[in-house]
Amino acid sequence: MKQSALLRKIRLDKQVTQKQLTQGICSRSSLATFESSxxxxxxxxxxxxxxxxxxxxxVDEFVFHMQMNSEKNACLDQLSSYIxxxxxxxxxxxxxxxxxxKYDQSGDVFWLCYGFKASEMYQQQHRDPFCYQExxxxxxxxxxxxxxxxxxxxxxxxxxxxxxxNIIQYLPTTYIxxxxxxxxxxxxxxxxxxxxxxxxxxxxxxxxxxxxxxxxAIRKILHESSPYxxxxxxxxxxxxxxxxxxxxxxxTDQHTIKRYRYLKIYQEMGFDGYYETLMxxxxxxxxxxxx
Length: 291
Description:
Blueprint: H1 3-13, H2 18-22, H3 28-36, H4 45-54, H5 59-67, H6 70-83, H7 90-106, H8 109-126, H9 132-138, H10 140-152, H11 158-167, H12 173-182, H13 192-212, H14 215-225, H15 234-252, H16 264-268, H17 272-290
């Protein structure tokens, strides 16, 4: 999809007018010309990055959708709309079937990944209780294909990070740590969007290991990933510190809220939701690991 068409779609989906988007950045006519362009792109990268920031859209997500064809974007839009539905109906099962048909026809791992995800969401809705281990056993062949794909790709992009994020809870610890160790050779960490993807993946690994109680693995990740965090990526640095402090709390059984005072920075900056989410996660893990 062209940059201009994708930017317009995102703007309309978020119900942002051209005037609102361009205020303080450039003239509205510049954006209008860009969005209506049927030939080459005619907007500076500086303006595009400012627009994406105002729309709260990460650069890697924009690039990911730009690389998708219309059929794949339609699939992602459908999956996103079904997530918002409660309960999710038969449409989700049919979407999974269509994705698997596309995979059989094309061999494109995109369709396998989202067929798997749609199947998982459908089963989570219709199985009570949903058992991750049972679903993992049923989908073992698909998971193996996705694991082999991730190992084989020598230059990771946003799609590979999404695939990994979609299946991390089904992956063995040794596989996850292998990915962690090999990734710095598969991406250019000097490129800020790549570094953001990498740090987000590390945090997801840490959270996953806390949830499954693999404290040996999480200590390894915390130790080896610490050089990648800095005050230039403060949010990820804070989350990783939070996971480390939670690990200490779980291992020592010494519970005190005072050790998390640094999380107040989210409240001070007006992001109360982050603070509440992290504290709720802490309470769930303390309860889970004490049962």
